[in-house]
Write a structure and sequence with these properties.
Blueprint: H1 2-24, H2 31-79, H3 97-107, H4 111-125, E1 132-138, E2 150-155, E3 159-160, E4 165-171, E5 174-179, E6 184-185, E7 190-194, E8 223-226, E9 238-243, E10 249-256, H5 270-279, E11 297-298, E12 310-312, E13 325-327
Parallel strand pairs: 7-8, 10-11
Antiparallel strand pairs: 1-2, 1-12, 2-7, 3-6, 4-5, 4-9, 9-10, 12-13
């Protein structure tokens, strides 16, 4: 009986062990391994999400760059002219025949252009046909006797005064400029430009009637023109010159109250003007050389006399030198009339 009980117990134990083995066989994966697999799946999922987000960001960046490029192209197209596809940069090889021809045309000077440049250069050396010639200058005025400063001109060729300009170097590197009115003038006519108005009867004579203007220094047989105001424009040390309608210098005079070897500090800028006048053949020494401050019209004897003037020797040829001029005696000014 006891042996039977043992056998039953052993048999039951064997059956129990077989049942446990069968229950363990489907659970061959441990819980840590399951957690590890779950974590791996979550990591893969996160990586895929991260990758998806990266791809999305890259796509968005590409879209932004594309939109930016498109925007820049639109802006550039509004500012810049359309690009010529047929012409590359200097290192390229594609150029249209028209562009090649244009470049060649710019590099080659035609005989007509060379001739025009030579003519323009020669015009400086050629004498300018003067319409007007400076004939008399009065640098002083008298408020008591109503006598204004003036510059008198003589017409040497008939024509129209339109475009003729008078320059007075009254200030450092600056000019007083007077533009003549467009009036017809006859050869031998005298024109007096009065440099201030001291009376109310000063009228510009622009037509045939030369007796319209009043004023102490006006002339009833000559054309009188006036600068309105009471400013001082002409000095005893001064440069006066005329230009025609084409900008060519017609005539000039250089005056110096204190002649010396060099210009004083107030007139250092005269040197460039004098050199320019010399280059145009409008002022020189008696023997044709480049002038110095000593080769000017000496005005030191004028003082403050309103009845003295710098007058041209009208019977002499214009040599564009100081020898063309003299200082009149007191009381012998002749505005609008032949010089004494």
């Amino acid at each position: 009986m006891k042996h039977i009980f043992y056998h039953v117990m052993i048999l039951s134990l064997l059956l129990f062990l077989c049942g446990c083995k069968n229950n363990l066989s489907p659970k061959h994966v441990t819980e840590p391994e399951i957690s590890k697999e779950q974590n791996t799946e979550e990591l893969d999922s996160n990586e895929r999400q991260t990758n998806n987000e990266s791809e999305t960001q890259i796509n968005k960046s590409q879209e932004i760059e594309t939109k930016k490029d498109e925007t820049e192209e639109v802006i550039l197209s509004e500012v810049l002219p359309p690009k010529d596809e047929t012409k590359e940069n200097e290192t390229g090889k594609n150029e249209t025949p028209q562009e090649n021809e244009g470049c060649e045309a710019q590099d080659v000077e035609t005989p007509e252009e060379n001739e025009a440049e030579e003519n323009e250069t020669n015009e400086i050396d050629q004498p300018v046909i003067s319409l007007l010639q400076i004939n008399e200058l009065c640098t002083e005025f008298s408020a008591l006797t109503k006598r204004a400063e003036y510059i008198e001109f003589k017409v040497v060729e008939p024509g129209n005064l339109e475009g003729v300009i008078l320059y007075i170097t009254y200030a450092d590197q600056d000019f007083f400029i007077y533009k003549f009115p467009a009036v017809d003038v006859a050869k031998g006519e005298y024109i007096t430009l009065h440099l201030r108005t001291l009376e109310s009867v000063c009228i510009d004579e622009l037509g045939e009637d030369l007796s319209l203007s009043g004023g102490t220094t006006s002339c009833r047989t000559a054309r009188d023109l006036w600068i309105v105001g009471s400013d001082k424009w002409l000095l005893k040390t001064d440069i006066v010159f005329l230009k025609d309608a084409k900008g060519k210098i017609m005539d000039a005079i250089i005056m110096n109250e204190k002649p010396s070897v060099t210009w004083d500090n107030n007139h250092l800028y005269f040197a460039d003007i004098v050199e320019n006048l010399y280059n145009y053949g409008m002022w020189k020494t008696a023997n044709g050389q480049k002038p110095t401050p000593l080769d000017t019209v000496d005005t030191s004897t004028i003082g403050t006399y309103a009845y003295k003037s710098i007058s041209r020797y009208e019977e002499r040829e214009n040599t564009h030198t100081a020898n063309d001029w003299y200082i009149t005696a007191n009381g012998y000014i002749t505005p609008g009339q032949p010089n004494n």
